[in-house]
Each structure stands twice: as C-alpha cells, then as structure tokens.
Amino acid sequence: MITTKMIGNKIAEARKNINISQARLAQHLFISSQAVGKWERGESMPDIITLNRLAEILGVDLNYFSESFQSADDETAFKMTNDLMEDNEQTIQEADNLSPSPERQLLTNFSGSNLPQSDFAGVTVPKGRFVGSALRGSDFSGADLTGSSFKASDVRETNFDGANLTDCNFYALDLWGASFHQSILVRTNFSTSALGGAKFSDVRLTNVKLTMTDLRKTIFENCIFEGVDFNKSDMRGLCLDGQTFTGVTFDNSALKEVSFKGATLRNVSFRATHALTNKYYRTIKTIRFDGAMMDKLSYNTLRGMGADLSKVTIL
Questions:
Q1: CATH number of 4-79: 3.40.190.10, 1.10.260.40, 3.40.50.300, 3.30.450.20?
Q2: What's the burial of 15, exposed, middle or buried (CB within 10 Å: 0-12/13-18/19+)?
Q3: d(C-alpha 189, C-alpha 170), whole Å
Q4: What CA–CA distance (Å, rounded) separates 282 from 286?
Q5: Predicted local distance difference test score (pLDDT) of residue 85
Q6: pLDDT for 153-200, tens place per residue?
Q7: I need a labelling partner for 171 at 20 to 30 A (CA). Which of 180, 208, 256, 297 fits?
C-alpha cells in the first residue's frame, strides 16, 4: 500500500542522490520549502501533476514512487550513470542526432563534479554533460557548448558571455545572476528553471523554448526574439521594452503587468491553454504596449482581447 511516508522517503532519497537541497527543489516547483519538508516527513503528499514534475526534476521514472519499484543501489544512484540520464533526458537524446563533426568528438561528462569558479573560457565541449554539478561562478565565456546539457546543477553567477549554446538544454537549474551577453542561443531549451537576476544582453534568441521558467526578475536588454516559445512561464512584471519579437508565442504564461513599451511585434500570439477566461482578459489589460509597433494580425488579436493599444503604431 502506498503511504505518504513511503512517498516522502522516496522524494528525499532521490533529492539527495542528485545533491540538491529542499529549498532548491521547492524553487524548481515554484512552491515553498516547507511544502517539500512536509512531503519528506510524510505529513502530506503531492498531487499526480506535481509527482510528474518531481519525476522529471529528480531524474526518475514516475513508477519510482510506486510500492513495487525496485531502486538501484545507492552508489549507482549517486553516480547517476549515462544510461539513466539517457532514459530521462529528452534533449540529450535529441543532441545525439545532431550532424556529426568532421573530426571525432569525445563526449565530455562533468556530472557530479565539484567545480565552482572554474575556468572553461573558450573551450570546446560538444554534447557535454553537467548533471548535479557545482559550477557556481564558473566562466564559460566564448566556449562552444553545442548540444550540452546542464541539469540539476548550481550555475548561479555563471558567465556564458559569447558562448555557443546551440541545442543546449538547461533543466531544473538555479541560474540566478548568470550572464548571457552576446551568447548564441539557437534551439536552446530552458525548462523548469529559475532565471531571476540572469541577464541577456545583445542576444538573438532563435527557436528558443522557455518552459515553466521563473522570469520575473530576468533582465533582457537589446534582444531579438525569433520563433521563441514562452510556455507556462512566470513573467509577471517583466520588462521587455524596446525589444523585437517575431513569430513568438506566449502560451499559458503569467503576463500580469509585463511591459512591451517601444517594442516591435510581428506575428506574436498571446493565448491560454484552454478557453479564454475573464481572469485572462483582465491580465491582458495590464500589459503595457505604449509606443510599440505591431503588424495587423498581432494588433487585432490583442485588440480582441481588450488590450490597451491606444498608443500603438500599426506596421
């Protein structure tokens, strides 16, 4: 019989195996650390949706939480072998299908490494793996990290200025204070991560996905967004003034008081997952578009939702 105590023990075990605290796990789930503590003490139990997200963040199969699941030995779980990562990390699987380099490249695995404030500037690390790694304050400026995966690692205050992050996956991370000045972001995926205090400046984001990310205190300056998908992300109060958006979707994201003043919008979509509600209409009304320029399609879509477009120029 599955009990709250059994679920709590499994959550605590998996969390410790990837070496993250209750506070960091709570941040990835956008809940309080007290809630995680209650789960692990068996005082309450997450719902099935949250269990799915926990499985993704902790790198386990959902069946891990069932009574009949037989876990691996502690040493294997702590080392988090490549096979386990390949079973649970979609982006790594996709990276394996990238076109091969003319020269043979070795897969570099830094998973579980303790490397704070390390110098990786200018290195070439294709398909590198940084899973459960301590990298706070490290310098990846100018590095070629194409196809690499950063998962459940401490990358606060990390420098990615000028780095090639094409096809990279940033998953279940705290990116507080990270810098992305003139970084190459093509098909880059940020998922279930906190980007508070992170700064993107002079960057062209192409086909980038930001899924379930906390962007409330993220800084974007002089950026171009092309084919970017903001999905289920918290963007409340975010300033996007003066930036350019083409083919961008804001899908079921929290948009209250977002500012697009002086921005340029072409073929931009604001939509909720289900039918539009009065709450969503009220949220759209709080978005500021003063001085913005937009194409007719974007204009009429927003106008139909009741957005204030009185100071908008139609392209």
A1: 1.10.260.40
A2: buried
A3: 6
A4: 7
A5: 38
A6: 889 999 999 999 999 999 988 899 999 999 999 999 999 888 989 999
A7: 256
Q: Within a 10 A sphere around the Cβ of 203, how many other Cβ atoms?
A: 22
Q: List the alpha helices (DSSP H) in the chain.
A: 4-17, 22-29, 33-40, 48-58, 74-79, 82-88, 90-95, 278-286, 296-304
Q: Residue 181: what are its φ and ψ, rounded to 5°? A: -80, 120
Lookup: tokens for 22: 């209750």
Crossing angle, helix 48-58 and helix 4-17, to 10 degrees? 20
Domain boundaries, the chain: 4-79
Q: Is the pTM of this model over 0.70?
A: no
How does DSSP classify residue 195? -
Structure tokens at 204: 């062209």
Contact between 135 and 156 (Cβ < 8 Å) = no
Beta bridge partners of 129: 109, 149
DSSP E strands in the chain: the ranges are: 129-131, 149-151, 169-171, 179-181, 185-186, 189-191, 199-201, 204-206, 209-211, 219-221, 224-226, 229-231, 244-246, 249-251, 264-266, 269-271, 293-294, 313-314
Distance (Å, whole) CA 183 – CA 159: 10
